[in-house]
Amino acid sequence: MKTQYTQIISTLNKLRAEIRWKPQSALRHLQKRRARGHLPPTATLSEYEAIIRVVLQDKSAEVYLYWYNQVAYVTVVGPIGNQKWLVMATDDGILESAFVVERPELYLKQPGFEYMGTIDEVMQ
Question: What is the pTM of this model?
Answer without folding.
Answer: 0.94
